[in-house]
Structure formats: structure tokens, C-alpha cells
Amino acid sequence: LDACLYYNTSQLDKKIKLTLLYETLCPDCQEFILNTLQRYVWKYGQDFVDFNFIPYGNARRTQLNNTWTIQCQHGPVECALNKLHGCAISKLVYVGKWFPLIVCLEEAAKLKMDPDAAFLLCSKKKKLDQTLSIAIYKCSNGVEGDLIQLQMAEITENVKPHPHYFVPWIL
């Protein structure tokens, strides 16, 4: 509480930076996003928090002959969802657009919904512009999404203090 009071009086007009390292099929990450972040931080503090989500988590990347391969802790579906989240965050830019989509996608993932079906459902549910929906989908199924995942890997691998030991990991 003292830290909050200090922040309140000394950091006027500055947002609290919250960077979340997570993976899309991790039960603890889903719980954290759907409950703690959505129900409390987003609901009551979205004007005070600068959200930065890094969907990579405990994945590992390897390079062979200048080609990167990413292996996700919970398998290929998680890699596809991590890429989808990365593309959504990249294309939608504004947290007020991408956070509700991420929440919807995590709810669908928790129900073991196919990533493509989940994206179709959530993009309609969140009333995404069709042009943006197509751009996100193409990104998540192409080279652009691969490059975004490599950026997420780079960020995750270079967190301070290094390394992260589990997810969700908050900076």
C-alpha cells in the first residue's frame, strides 16, 4: 500500500508498465489473464497501466542452416496461438482493441477450441474490422507471424533479471 501511495503522489501522469511473459495454453497464464488481469487490473486500472504482452513463454527456439524453429511447451497448437496473439497485438496496436481479443481467444483456448475457429468467433464477437481481421489471420499464418514470434523470443530471452523461471512472469 505504501508503494501505491508513493506512486500516486510522485508519478502523476505516468502509467505503471506491466509486461507479461506468457504462453497461450498454460493454465496458470490463462487463469492470470482471465481472472486477475481482466477482472481487476483491466476493469479498474486500464487508465493507469501500460500493458505489454509477450506471447512466447517457455518456448525454445533453435537455428539450423539460418532457419529458426520454435518448439512450444504445450505443442504446435500453442505455437499457432502464440503467433496469433503476437499478430493481433502487432496489428491492433491499441491495448483497448487487442486486450479484449486476447481475453476472448484465451477463453476459447481454455475450451480447447481450434485456433482458426476461435479467431473467427472472437473477431466477430469483438467487432473487428474485416480488413484488420484478414491482416491478423494472414500474419498468423505467414512469415510475418514467424518474425513476430522471433521478436517475442528475443524479448523473452533478454529479460532482466534473466532467465524467467516460469510463466506467467511479470516485469
Break the fold down into its secondary structure elements and pairings:
Elements lengths: L1 H9 L5 E7 L4 H19 L3 E7 L4 E5 L2 E5 L4 H17 L2 H16 L4 H11 L4 H11 L2 H15 L11 E2 L1
Describe the structure.
- By secondary structure, the protein is of the alpha+beta class.
- It has one domain (about 1-170): Glutaredoxin (3-Layer(aba) Sandwich), CATH 3.40.30.
- About 55% of the residues lie in helices and about 15% in strands.
- It has seven helices and five strands; from the N terminus they run H-E-H-E-E-E-H-H-H-H-H-E.
- Strands 2-1-5 form a three-stranded mixed β-sheet. A two-stranded antiparallel sheet has the order 3-4.
- Strand 1 (about 15-20), helix 2 and strand 2 form a beta-alpha-beta unit.
- Helix 2 (about 25-45) runs antiparallel to helix 4.
- It is globular and about 50 Å long.
- The two termini are about 20 Å apart.
- The model has no long low-confidence stretch (mean pLDDT about 95).
